[in-house]
Amino acid sequence: MRRLAAALALAFAFVALAAAAQAAELRVPKSGPYAFRVTVPKGWHSKYDALGGLLVVPPAASQHAMLYLAILTDEKYRGQPPSMVAAEVARLAGVDSIESQKPATISGRQGTAYFGSIVKKAPRYERKVKIVLLRLGPATWAQQWIVTQPGMNYVEADAFNKALDGITLTGP
């Protein structure tokens, strides 16, 4: 009986590891008229947050970047200019200030990329932040965050860029 239980436990572990090792296509948020569709590469980690956003992180040895996708719907942002919405969401995430901006697109939709930094003094580290923000409706925004840190090599950058290329934004 113990052998059977051990064999079943081992089989379940292999199935779980195999499932985790496969690329997965996810929808962000899980429901609603607008959504990001992203293929999370094999070996990467993803986690939905309480607001329906998705955090995507490369494997531990390559964690010099992360991706966050979300559709933000909030009446307090109704009719607000994109720069104000960007400054507010950046502030909530610990971005010190928006340093620059430029036009950007996701799936052919026009928006703006906002650039800033997150700097922590103890322990000292700095992360570069790029927030692509697109207005989808009067109080609805698509957000694509890319956070990087020093040390990313060309192999990591290439894998990360391929993951970014696989993101689509769907909806009316």
Overview in brief:
The protein has 172 residues and is of the alpha+beta class. Helix content is 25%, strand content 44%.
The low-confidence parts are 1-20
**How many structural domains can be distinguished in the coordinates?**
1
Cα-to-Cα separation, first versus last residue: 57 Å
Helix content: 25-40%
Can you identify the CATH class?
Answer: Alpha Beta
The CATH homologous superfamily is called Mog1/PsbP, alpha/beta/alpha sandwich
Mean pLDDT: 86
**What is the CATH topology descriptor?**
Protein Transport Mog1p, Chain A
Strand content: 35-45%
Helix/strand order:
HEEEEEHEEEEHE
Query: What is the spatial order of strands in the main beta sheet?
Result: 3-4-5-9-8-7-6
The CATH architecture assignment turns out to be 3-Layer(aba) Sandwich
* Biggest pleated sheet: 7 strands, antiparallel
What's the count of strands? 10
Q: Please give the radius of gyration in angstroms.
A: 19 Å
Provide a descriptive summary of the structure in words:
It is a single chain. The longest helix is centred in the N-terminal third of the chain and has 20 residues, at 2-21. The chain has 3 helices and 10 strands. The radius of gyration is 19 Å and the shape is globular. The strands form 2 sheets. It has a 7-stranded antiparallel β-sheet, with helices on one face. A hairpin with a 2-residue loop joins strand 6 and strand 7 (109-121). Mean pLDDT is 86; it is low at 1-20. The chain has helices at residues 2-21, 82-92, 154-165; strands spanning 24-28, 35-40, 45-48, 54-57, 65-73, 98-106, 109-121, 124-137, 140-148, 168-170. The protein has a single domain, classed as Protein Transport Mog1p, Chain A, CATH 3.40.1000.10. The chain has 172 residues and is α+β, with helices and mostly antiparallel strands.
